[in-house]
Design brief:
3 domains; Nucleotidyltransferase, domain 5; five-stranded mixed β-sheet
Length: 582
């Protein structure tokens, strides 16, 4: 009998991804398409590009198999999308109509119509390349395509990747088929929809508007910058009151006042002096503060239902690490899980789980741990060997037994290190396999990396990766943060010990490291701890600003040779630039 594979595709116009689950429900592959393409967010790109999907099928699915493919959006679309398409709102001429400068929510209509136009195209193209390759490579196989509710795919990846037997799940994003919010009950491998918001009210749209007001671009995924800048600001009561009039929590939903959106935006834009960075920082702080207030109200209402003391949070808004670290203190939930890929890339894995469970229902889960994040591709060993052979001028050392110790010595000496190990992380954060690492003790290290490696704004912080057993020595009300998904406050006693990873508001978006989660990364930090007495490293993604995290050896070498990195480690091999120590 042929094996059967369950492939999930995120066919959203942003953050497309591919995931594969086997018959035993093991995740054998999951990765965002942006990594392969090296295009940030892979906007308007198919998840299953022909070259990439060919390699994935060959690597993970063998020569003879049957396939069930799940997509992360319903096939039957809401009526308003058909109407807009027929009315030519999705054409270039339609987007240029002046009357579409008006708003029906926090964004101008032409921006909404552009999103819908891109989404319509992405869904129409989604799976076409995969079908082409399956038809040619597996001609005698059974191939079935299934479509799922978008918010259900969010809930599936979040709940099925959690350590919980039962939980309540809230999806918060910009929009789904009906609206921007959904609540699910989760128990022993089963999901049940409790409620779903129907309407255009959206905290995701609010944060997009805030990103634009602060001078950033949400299409480029620059909401991160708002959170970083917010730490430099303070509350502006007048702006807060304007936000309050725009949108409010109503039960487990939202209520929007479009007139207040119009008037409030005009007032805020008139108040902001584009040359005054302090005003932008205050705006970012106030918007983040307001967002957190609304999220707290929603989650408090969710807890009051009495479904569970375990919270699963997902959707694009679950990337807001600044709020995530406050959930346990600001609500009555006892535990919270946020997956490594809570945004639309993660829905590829949610769709794969759902299409699997249609024919092989999930049994009761007893896994005490969350799903590992290291589900992506590996770098080519053949390419590493070619780099060793043809990397003229590079100093090269192969250190299979001492790579962690030697790297720790470099870090303790203040060197900047590119670190590539094993399988890539699934999700937007580098968690010790595709990382740039540095010594957190150096107060000048943050500015050095921003200026010489990342080439980004000076206000952007860096993350601390800490050995779990020492977490409560460095952070107030310490919580495990497996996927670098929450921000906590440093203890006063730690501020001068690791200043490179302490943000201006004394916070840090930490990564908890345990040996059972990432053995080699744990050993590296442990070796650094033995040398310095500090069980922590500065960890940031292996890329430069505006690019995705590196995918191939060529990507890693390109960053290494065109930035201020001092050393590159790929698995067991250590590379220095020409003229550097060997």
């Amino acid at each position: 009998m042929k094996p059967e594979y369950y492939i999930g595709l995120s066919v959203t116009f942003h953050d497309p991804a591919v995931a594969i689950v086997n018959e035993q429900r093991d995740v054998i592959f999951a990765e965002a398409t942006e990594r392969h393409l090296q295009i940030k967010r892979a906007l308007n790109c198919e998840p299953d590009t022909l070259h990439w999907i060919t390699g994935i099928l060959h690597e993970y699915c063998g020569d003879h198999a049957n396939f069930r493919i799940g997509l992360n959006w319903r096939k039957r679309r809401p009526f308003y999308e058909y109407f807009c398409a027929v009315a030519n709102y999705f054409t270039p001429q339609g987007l240029l109509r002046k009357r579409f400068d008006s708003r029906s929510t926090f964004l101008e209509k032409y921006k909404l119509f552009h999103m819908l136009a891109c989404q319509t195209r992405s869904m129409a193209q989604g799976g076409v390349n995969l079908a082409r390759k399956l038809r040619g490579s597996y001609p005698d196989s059974t191939i079935v395509f299934r479509h799922f509710d978008h918010h259900l795919t969010h809930a599936a990846v979040a709940c099925f990747s959690s350590p919980f037997e039962e939980a309540v799940c809230m999806v918060v994003d910009s929009f789904g088929e009906k609206g921007s919010l959904a609540v699910y009950r989760y128990c022993q491998g089963r999901l049940e929809l409790h409620s779903e918001l129907s309407g255009i009210e959206s905290l995701g749209f609010f944060y997009m508007m805030l990103t634009e007001l602060c001078g950033f671009d949400w299409l480029e995924g620059e909401e991160w910058k708002v959170m970083g800048l917010a730490a430099y600001g303070s509350l502006e009561p007048e702006i807060y009151r304007l936000f309050e009039a725009m949108i409010a929590v109503e039960g487990l939903g939202l209520r929007q006042n479009l007139e207040s959106v119009y008037s409030g935006l005009q007032q805020i834009e008139a108040m902001i002096d584009n040359s005054d960075q302090t005003q932008f920082a205050n705006l970012a702080y106030t918007g983040q503060y307001f967002f957190s207030e609304l999220m707290q109200q929603l989650l408090s209402g969710l807890y009051a239902l009495g479904f569970s003391e375990n919270l699963v949070l997902c959707g694009g808004c679950a990337l807001n690490s600044s709020f995530n670290g406050q959930i346990l203190a600001r609500t009555q939930f006892k535990a919270v899980h946020i997956p490594s890929a809570p945004a639309d890339d993660g829905t590829a894995l949610g769709a794969a789980f759902l299409v699997h469970d249609e024919v092989r229902p999930a049994s009761t889960r007893s896994n005490p741990e969350s799903l590992p994040a290291y589900l992506g591709s590996v770098v080519s060993e053949d390419t590493v060997r070619r780099l060793v052979r043809f990397g003229q001028g590079l100093s090269i050392r192969h250190l299979p037994d001492t790579i962690c110790t030697e790297t720790a010595k470099l870090l303790a000496d203040g060197k900047l290190v590119g670190w590539v190990q094993g399988r890539a992380e699934f999700g937007p954060r580098a968690l010790g396999n595709r990382s740039i690492l540095a010594d957190p003790r150096d107060p000048g290290m943050k500015d050095k990396i921003n200026a010489m490696v990342k080439f980004r704004e000076a206000f952007r912080p860096f993350a601390p990766a800490v050995l779990h057993q020492y977490g409560d020595q460095y952070f107030e009300a310490y919580q495990e943060s497996r996927y670098m998904e929450r921000t906590l406050r440093f203890k006063d006693s730690a501020l001068d010990v690791v200043p490179a990873v302490v943000h201006v508001d004394h916070s840090g978006r930490l990564q908890t490291v345990k040996p059972q989660w990432n053995k080699r990364f744990y050993e590296l930090i442990e070796a650094f701890h033995e040398i310095t007495g500090v069980p922590m490293l500065l960890n940031t993604s292996f890329n430069i600003m505006g690019k995705p995290i590196m995918h191939s050896v060529e990507d890693a070498v390109g960053v290494f040779l065109t930035t201020g990195l001092d050393a590159l480690i790929i698995n067991d091999t250590l590379f220095f630039k020409p003229g550097e120590r060997s």
